[in-house]
Design brief:
By secondary structure, the chain is α+β, with helices and mostly antiparallel strands. Helix content is 48%, strand content 15%. The chain has a two-stranded antiparallel sheet. The longest helix has 10 residues. The model has no long low-confidence stretch (mean pLDDT 94). It binds zinc ion (ZN). Zinc ion (ZN) binds next to helix 4.
Length: 65
């Protein structure tokens, strides 16, 4: 399935290609995002978990330095 996720920080919309049945299982609390979606990049997994894209995630971390 094609999943659209919006970054809460920069409001950019990203399209992720995920397996629909695994997505449903993940939404119901089964398994970690990295084990359910090994095909996604770490940036894409972060987007699913925290609705923050890789670029914004990096800049949030930089501000804490
Ligand atoms: Zn962003």
């Amino acid at each position: 399935m094609n999943l659209k996720v919006r970054c809460d920080v920069c409001k950019a919309v990203f399209e992720l290609q995920v397996d629909a049945s695994r997505y449903q299982r993940w939404k119901s609390g089964e398994g970690y995002v990295q084990t359910m979606f090994p095909e996604l990049t770490s940036d894409q997994r972060e987007l699913l978990l925290s609705q923050t894209c890789g670029k914004c995630f990096d800049s949030l971390f930089k501000e804490e330095d």
